[in-house]
Write a structure and sequence with these properties.
The chain has 211 residues and is α+β, with helices and mostly antiparallel strands. It folds into 2 domains: 78 residues, Glutaredoxin, CATH 3.40.30; 110 residues, Glutathione S-transferase Yfyf (Class Pi), Chain A, domain 2. It is built from 8 helices and 4 strands; from the N terminus they run βαβαββαααααα. Helix 4 packs antiparallel against helix 5. The radius of gyration is 17 Å and the shape is globular. Bound molecules: glutathione. The site of glutathione has 8 residues, from helix 3. Glutathione (GSH) binds next to helix 3.
Length: 211
């Protein structure tokens, strides 16, 4: 098989990898593995990702899963301005990627689910509050770091920003950060990028199609 395939309907985290491809201007095929047809739990897909989770990626014979690892791979492979130019910048991309996956995403998504994603009847305001209480110090770390430099690994948008942005993709529209001006500036810069807006539009169109 040739070409790049991104597995996962674009209402899932596969949108993170679609965003990366759009940033890179790299063509991809989106294979709509998802829940409607249970294809995510099929043996065929488990052979690609034994976790039965999306996204996953196939690049020729190479298969990879974990959305943020896929972005690190795509940017490393295709280069361009998002790629690191030295080891320190590459290490910063690993740092921010792990931080986003290990620390930021879970509490932020807990907040997002109970604030606006779940149907109203299923939302638990206490869970939203607990999620935000845990996320707040992490958002303060972002604000403080972004007070020192325009982007997370220096003066330009890199895969470090992309991957932290991916962890905030669902939440960013609803985040109110008037007390965190550096974070607010960064959120604006990241999510008004043409590729980010295009990715958001793809996600919205798919959500509307499924509604
Ligand atoms: N850490 C993984 C998380 C993957 C994940 O949990 N994806 C969700 C969709 S966004 C999923 O496939 N869930 C499987 C299920 O709902 O059974 C990544 O970033 O790729």
């Amino acid at each position: 098989m040739s070409g790049l395939q991104i597995y996962g309907v674009p209402i899932s985290r596969s949108i993170s990898n679609i965003w990366a491809c759009l940033e890179l201007g790299f063509p991809y095929e989106n294979v709509p593995i998802g829940w409607d047809d249970n294809s995510i739990y099929s043996d065929t897909f488990r052979a690609i990702n034994p976790n039965a989770r999306v996204p996953a990626m196939r690049d020729g014979d190479f298969v990879l899963w974990e959305s943020l690892a896929i972005n690190l791979y795509l940017v490393r492979k295709h280069g361009g301005p998002m790629a690191a130019t030295d080891l320190a910048q590459e290490a910063l991309a690993w740092q921010w990627t792990l931080w986003a996956a290990v620390h930021l995403e879970r509490p932020l998504m807990r907040w997002a689910f109970h604030r606006f994603i779940l149907d109203e009847a299923e939302r638990d305001p206490k869970a939203a509050e607990a999620g935000m209480a845990e996320a707040m110090p992490l958002l303060a770390v972002l604000d403080s770091e972004l007070g020192r430099r325009p982007f997370l690994a220096g003066d330009r948008f890199t895969v470090a920003d992309l991957n932290v942005g991916c962890a905030m993709f669902r939440a960013h529209h609803h985040l109110d950060t008037p007390d965190k001006p550096n974070l607010a500036r960064w959120l604006r810069a990241v999510f008004t990028r043409p590729a980010a807006e295009r990715a958001w539009a793809i996600r919205v169109a798919e959500a509307a199609r499924l509604a």
